[in-house]
Amino acid sequence: MRIVTVPCLSDNYGYLVISGTGEAAIVDASEATPMRNAIERERVIPRAIWSTHHHWDHVGGNEELSSELGLEVLGHVSDRGRLPAFTRGVDSGDEAIVGDVRARCIHVPGHTLGAVAYFIETPSERAVFTGDTLFSAGCGRLFEGTPAQLHDSLSRLAALPSDTLVYCGHEYTEANLAFAERVEPSNSAIHAARERATTRRKRGEPSIGTTIAEESQVNPFLRVRSSEIRSSLGIGATADDVSAFAAIRRAKDAFR
Fold this sequence. Notes:
Metallo-beta-lactamase, Chain A; 6-stranded mixed beta sheet; 9 helices
């Protein structure tokens, strides 16, 4: 398996998941032209679009590419009727297959009610495509779901194998880490992660491709039990995890 990151729009990422057969899936066809260019450059045979959710900045190229290339378009079963060019609904436990690559679908509501993550495990590597549910050092806003839903979704993603590479939908890492430093200033892992992200961005490289283990160390939304985060945001020590998560999300929404 080979994963190619494709920058789209102003700060989106789509991906090509390329199997050993040369067949490929597009994860989040934000716009057609960058994806078409990547397909031609990598000389792959596209077979499907795996959409993580219905928001326009993740599906803007669905109709054009699916019509032009004859692609299957996957999304959560609940997104039928609002995800462009939708052909197949998936839910937790279903598989998305391209060539010799098999992805397990995980329903992760919260950012939207029909959000899906695609988890791939091979003998040599693991990767998960999280869309706008789990970002590098952050998570998506609550546009449709509840704090309890998104907290549960993130907890299930955090339970994936620790070496799983995380491929998310946006280049938000530096801003996310700035917030993380604000609420947990003594966490040295956050400082190191911010330096790495800044270095990569200065070189014109994506900052994404962290691991679940790294996210567990720096992502405030996976660290709701941190006493320092709770103290920084005035969250009571006895507050339950969902209440703490909701407070962290509100603070991040207001962070500038």
